[in-house]
Amino acid sequence: MNYLAHLHLAPDNPAARVGNLLGDFLKPSHALHLPPALQQGMALHRRIDSHTDRHPLVMQSKSRIAPIRRRYAGILVDIFYDHFLARHWARFCSMPLADFTRRSYAELQAHRQWLPPRLLEILPRMQAEDWLLSYAEIAGIAAVLRGFSRHRIRRDNPVAAGIDDLLQHYDALEQDFIDFYPQLQQAMGGDASAMQQAGIALDQFGEQLLHPFPHDLHPQAHQDEG
Questions:
Q1: Residues of the chain with pLDDT under 70
Q2: pTM (predicted TM-score)
Q3: Contact status, residue 22 vs residue 150, Cβ threshold 8 Å
Q4: Helix, strand, or coil here: 94?
Q5: How far is CA 131 from CA 24, 58, 122, 125, 179, in A?
């Protein structure tokens, strides 16, 4: 799954949402310095991806990708599913999508002392252009694919043209997602609940995450974030 789904599937707690998103930016071995609440979110991220990658409906979606782009099918389907989640948001979440995205950016900014350089680099543009909200539009997905093709894969690749797969198989991919996502929610619901009930209460980290150091001793205070 991609950014929007990981934020949505996390327990209803800022540290859990941020941690779940961090799974796209950090390997577990590079996250040992993070507070346990964020590490728990990253662990949920891995369980979500593992469940998703082997699910028959997701495999069916991947089979719809043109052979020339099949090696990137996992990337494309993750991004397409964020599009369908945004399109059908009211079916899965009572909070309006625009409010959810604003809250998500604010939570990321509040935890920025724990964010890796790549996320710190893209966050201002991600927020200013409201990438998460833009997923609801075909043009937004096309922009995501172009950006991924240029910046995330070094070799020449056909990922940007994956928008053709979305358009050609739109109804079938949409139905795959609608059938799959409630199953994913149900499968991950137990994990999210366990995180909430764990010995480490996630919300107790809020103040620590916001103010872990005096301002002049903050580890980022004298570093160039760009």
A1: 190-226
A2: 0.83
A3: no
A4: coil
A5: 15, 23, 10, 8, 25
